[in-house]
Specification:
Blueprint (H helix, E strand, L loop, with lengths): L2 H22 L3 H9 L5 H18 L1 H7 L2 H24 L2 H20 L10 H18 L2 H10 L5 H25 L5 H25 L4 H31 L1
Helix pairs in contact: 1-2, 1-10, 2-3, 2-11, 3-9, 3-10, 4-9, 5-7, 5-9, 6-8, 6-11, 7-8
């Protein structure tokens, strides 16, 4: 693949993922990494996505402050603060097809679980909110996919689409800024990534704007079903690619 086509496809992936983020409040990392990891290494993408998630949350901040769920916010932030360093440590030591298998498997499993209607019993407890935060933090540090874990758990409780979207927006603002600082300390953030993030911020802003307009004008249940369908397909494609690469490396 030439550099021009690589960059064009990356810009398109960011735009599509940002549309989903503006609509559903999550999915930007999963979709952008899920698409681009088909031809780029996830370890190169995760720090850039950390950078982009911060302005993505800031663009939705006004609505988030108005609609977020207070009973979930503190446990999610506290648990994520504990889990993110663990995920960052795993990211620093896990490379190649193994990382792609973890990333794609997480996307596929989380999306498939939601599509099947799976949810944990007695989920809306203080302890379970903290557990959700820790698991989300680990996945966020490892692959910037903590939103998938949170979405699965939040869908299992009585929370409105607006509150879910707002809660995830505020959580991402904290976790991605925190994770970005830890990634820099771990040496995973390189100077050229800032330039790439600046370029990708253009389709990010356009996608967030379009997704926000869709959120206020369409059926959220139908859209979410399509989003998780796309995530399932992307995850399955990534798992297949990683499994094929692992098989070739061992032969």
């Amino acid at each position: 693949m030439t550099a021009v086509w690589d960059q064009a496809l990356c810009l398109l992936a960011v735009f599509v993922a940002a549309c989903v983020r503006g609509y559903a409040g999550f999915g930007f990392s999963a979709i952008s990494i899920g698409i681009m990891s088909l031809w780029r290494a996830p370890s190169e993408l995760v720090p850039i996505i950390f950078i982009l998630e911060v302005p993505a949350s800031l663009l939705l901040l006004r609505e988030a402050i108005r609609d977020y769920s207070g009973r979930w916010m503190k446990p999610l932030i506290g648990g994520s603060a504990l889990g993110i360093p663990l995920g960052i440590g795993l990211l620093a030591g896990l490379q190649g097809p193994g990382l792609q298998l973890v990333v794609s498997g997480t996307i596929c499993a989380g999306a498939f679980a939601v599509r099947l209607g799976w949810h944990p019993r007695h989920a809306d407890t203080h302890g379970f909110r903290w557990l959700t935060g820790v698991v989300s933090g680990i996945l966020n540090g490892l692959s910037a996919l903590g939103g998938i874990a949170c979405a699965v758990m939040l869908y299992s409780v009585s929370i409105t689409p607006a509150a879910l979207r707002a809660t995830l927006t505020l959580l991402f603002l904290f976790t991605d800024a925190y994770g970005l600082a830890l990634a820099w300390l771990a040496g995973l953030l390189q100077p050229h990534m800032l330039g790439v993030a600046a370029l990708w911020a253009i389709p990010l802003a356009l996608g967030i704007y379009c997704g926000s307009r869709f959120f206020h004008a369409s059926d959220t249940r139908l859209f979410r079903a399509r989003v998780f369908g796309l995530l399932t397909l992307l995850g399955a494609a990534g798992v297949a690619k990683a499994a094929f690469a692992l098989a070739n490396s061992q032969s």
